[in-house]
Structure to design on (297 residues):
């Protein structure tokens, strides 16, 4: 869907992107992660043709990005941009028309989204009279109303309470199921775990990690198992620091060169194995690990 090759961008003396390659497959939710100032917004602005790269290419559906492609893209920028004095309905009509919808099509789409997000009763309110979360919902509709094939969301959950964040999460997943490709830039790692199929991490202008969430989690496995035993047949070594609760003992052990089956059969000699589960790192742990190792280099 989106292929970025050798992208470079500097602001005055500051390098914001260095040789970034990225391949975003069609129909996935692609997480773009990175610490503050890493270069994520710069990359998203280039894809949205708000700023220009110094070198490198961006292709959408196999063709070099052109001004007409803006209609295929929906961009929710980090700094939201609604006209405060304008009413919700008029504003959404305005944005839909800008993105190429006819007036009748715009009305149908807007009505359907206002109903879906349960905000039709606010259609005649000015943006300045809305709460932050309400305005966020209007901005989300303005981003998706023209049914873009590529949706780029920069921190889409900021300003939402947990209930509304959940509603937006579900809408993102529904759009994905309808075939929309989504790029999601966020610092909320739990949303990445829940929503993203692929992810890339950018740190200090360079891409430092890229792959499917499954592959990445697999490659960072610490090879440590969580084990719960009951009905002990013999005492557990103290260095395993087992935690006792009622008649179960819980601890973690590294594979230390053994196969999982070898470790499991060793555990069976100690008692009934109630739980034997490999610990997988969270995306947050991987993120912190990657950023810290890059800093140590
Ligand atoms: N217009 C600009 N002029 C000069 N420097 C800029 C400009 N825009 C961004 N930068 C710098 O480029 C770097 C990358 O910024 P960018 O906004 O792309 O980061 P980011 O990954 O989106 O960060 P955050 O997570 O904080 O939003 C930062 O060091 C920033 O200060």
């Amino acid at each position: 869907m989106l292929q970025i090759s050798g992208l470079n961008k500097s602001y005055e003396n500051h390098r914001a992107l260095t040789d970034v390659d990225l391949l975003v497959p069609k129909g996935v939710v692609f997480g773009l992660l990175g610490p503050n100032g890493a270069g994520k917004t710069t990359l998203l602005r280039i894809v949205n043709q708000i700023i220009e790269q110094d070198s490198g290419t961006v292709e959408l559906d196999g063709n070099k990005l052109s001004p007409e492609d803006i209609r295929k893209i929906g961009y929710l920028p980090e700094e939201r941009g609604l006209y405060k004095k304008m009413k919700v309905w008029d504003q959404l009509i305005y944005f839909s028309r800008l993105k190429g919808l006819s007036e009748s099509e715009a009305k149908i789409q807007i009505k359907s989204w206002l109903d879906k997000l349960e905000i039709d009763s606010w259609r005649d309110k000015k943006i300045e009279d809305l709460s932050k979360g309400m305005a966020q919902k209007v901005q989300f509709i303005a981003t998706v109303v023209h049914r873009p094939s590529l949706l780029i969301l920069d921190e889409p959950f900021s300003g939402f309470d947990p209930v509304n964040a959940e509603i937006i999460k579900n809408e993102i997943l529904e759009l994905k199921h309808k075939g929309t490709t989504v790029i999601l830039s966020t610092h909320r790692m739990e949303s990445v775990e829940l929503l993203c199929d692929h992810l890339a991490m950018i740190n200090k202008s360079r891409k430092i990690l890229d792959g499917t969430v499954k592959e990445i989690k697999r490659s960072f496995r610490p090879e440590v198992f969580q084990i719960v035993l009951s009905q002990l047949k013999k005492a557990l070594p103290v260095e395993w620091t087992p935690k006792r609760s009622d008649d179960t003992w819980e601890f973690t052990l590294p594979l230390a060169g053994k196969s999982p089956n070898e470790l499991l059969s060793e555990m069976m000699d100690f008692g009934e194995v109630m739980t034997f589960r490999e610990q997988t790192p969270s995306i947050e742990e991987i993120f912190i690990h990657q950023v810290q190792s890059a800093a140590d280099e």
